[in-house]
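Hi V.,

You were right to ask for the full record rather than a summary. Here it is.
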Amino acid sequence: ETLHRVLIRLASLSMRLGMVGAVLIAVVNERFVTLWVGQGFFGGYGLNAVLVYWALQDTLLRGITIFIYGSAQLKGWTFISVLEAVLNVGLSIVLARRMGIAGVALGTAISRTIPTTVFVIVQACRSVQMPVMALLRDGIARPGILCLPTVAVGVLVGRFTPWHWGWLWIIAVGGSVMAANLATFELPILLDRRLGSLSERIASLARV
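Predicted structure:
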């Protein structure tokens, strides 16, 4: 059961980080690129949407892939990695002809989703003998739903904060997103006196 909790905890934290990153890319990226190198260098909303998905997917995979490395299924991991590379090249070439650089990014996202993401989730659960649905429900869906206020705060702050603030606009959005996420997950624990003294509540945040 300890390994079950560790896997769910890692997946949950990875999902949170991925959601924060995805929101920041979705809301801030255009403004960031404009301030940094100029308006003409923004890749467009199609590419930005793929980057949003990329951030969420890659963060989640990095969080739970450690269970693959710790298992005896490295041959399977090697095969999946080769399959991903082949799919990536093929899809990127095909999609690049129609969508340009956004097609390359989309091809990479698709090739990483179909074989790799499915394999990592299933194999990570097998390595600790946990039902896949338990990980999908408690490690991915639940934290994802709880991150919806974070998404809403990022969108609202980005919408109603004046764009002419420039870099301060980006700081305001980023700070509000982080604050909203911490308030959703950590604040209820810190305010729950049933969990003991304040020091005990703070210590409980680090427990698996």
